[in-house]
Design goal:
333 residues, globular, FAD/NAD(P)-binding domain, 33% helix, single chain, alpha/beta, 9 helices, nine-stranded mixed beta sheet
């Protein structure tokens, strides 16, 4: 008898894993606390994912019409530091659209998708997977995101940095731009709700961009914010198989967060399939997946952790301006 896999969390990792498991004939129930479609704090810029990964998970169709982006520019304050071309084009698509497509695909493949279903996981429960995103901590970061129109950019991806954070702008679908930033929490900023985004950008020294954001058209209900999280490896919960952001959150400047979500599902898929078919016991499955995660992501997480603080320092401007792009991408992807 084939065991059922229960996935808690319906983001990229949970949904793509559900599709892959169903493609292998494994019964799946997925619990998502929210509803679809929904906006999430995310750069919506997928850099470094391979066609092999997408095909293995059987989700290529959901990204077939995603925008292909190849040019990047980096600003400090109001000044352009550098312009580059990516060695391999990145994909760009809103999570509002992508998550909804993945939800429908998983359901079409026979997965049971339960929305508005907030679950807790019991440690050492065979077949239960935790893919519910960040683990809340008293972190120092705030993530802010919205979709805007009327934002003209000099490249497919603009990065704007300063002393308290950085922000990326990239076109998604239907003429909208994703505007998403990571900032150190500043209690002196008194703006509320959507006004937080231009307020943090202005405090960061990106004043021209702040003016542009304030005058642009904002997509209704697209503003989202998240705080209370830590970057890097997340604190493990004994007896719980954690995937995706629940395992590790890479600093967003890398453009590798969405790719790691897919790769996390890719790592887990064959092992969970063998568990469901009776080839592995649950303890062996969990240890095999966790070991593979650490081996796959260790180098890029370490490199991103070392590079991340430099983005905020004026002393590192020569590095930001002149460092060759390809070796950096090789480290963080």
């Amino acid at each position: 008898m084939t065991e059922e896999i229960t996935i808690i969390g319906g983001g990229l990792t949970g949904l793509s894993l559900a599709v892959g498991l169903r493609a292998n004939g494994i019964p799946v129930t997925l619990h998502e606390a929210g509803q679809y479609p929904r906006h999430r704090v995310c750069g919506e810029f997928i850099s470094g994912v391979s066609e092999e990964t997408l095909n293995y998970l059987a989700i290529s169709s959901t990204l077939a019409d995603a925008a292909r982006h190849s040019t990047v520019s980096w600003f400090r304050g109001n000044s352009l530091l550098r312009e580059n071309r990516l060695p391999t084009p990145a994909l760009s698509i809103s999570r509002h659209l992508l998550d909804n497509r993945l939800r429908h695909l998983a359901a079409e493949e026979g997965a049971t998708i339960l929305t508005g279903s907030r679950q807790k996981i019991t440690p050492n429960t065979p077949g239960s997977v935790w893919a519910a995103g960040r683990k809340p901590v008293n972190g120092t970061w705030i993530g802010l995101k919205a979709h805007l129109r009327g934002v003209e950019t000099t490249s497919h991806l603009e990065m704007h940095s300063g002393p308290i954070g950085y922000l990326g702008i990239t076109p998604v679908e239907d003429g909208w731009h994703n505007v998403c930033g990571l900032f150190r929490i500043d209690r002196s900023i008194t703006a509320r709700h959507a006004d937080l985004l231009p307020a943090y950008v202005r405090e960061n020294g990106n004043t021209r961009l702040a003016d542009l954001l304030a005058s642009a058209e904002w997509k209704e209900d697209s503003f989202t914010a998240v705080a209370g999280f830590g970057l890097g490896l997340q604190e493990p919960t004994p007896g719980v198989l954690s995937l995706g952001d629940s395992h590790a959150i890479i600093p967003p400047f890398t453009g590798n967060g969405m790719t790691m979500a897919f790769q996390s599902a890719e790592i887990a898929l064959p092992v969970l399939t063998r568990f469901a078919e009776g080839d592995f016991d649950w303890q062996t499955a969990c240890s095999t997946i966790t070991t593979a995660h650490r081996k796959t992501f260790r180098k890029r997480l370490t490199a991103a952790k070392l590079l991340h603080p430099l983005l905020f320092e004026n002393a590192a401007l020569p590095l930001l301006k002149h460092a060759p792009l390809s070796p950096i991408l090789n480290l963080i992807r």
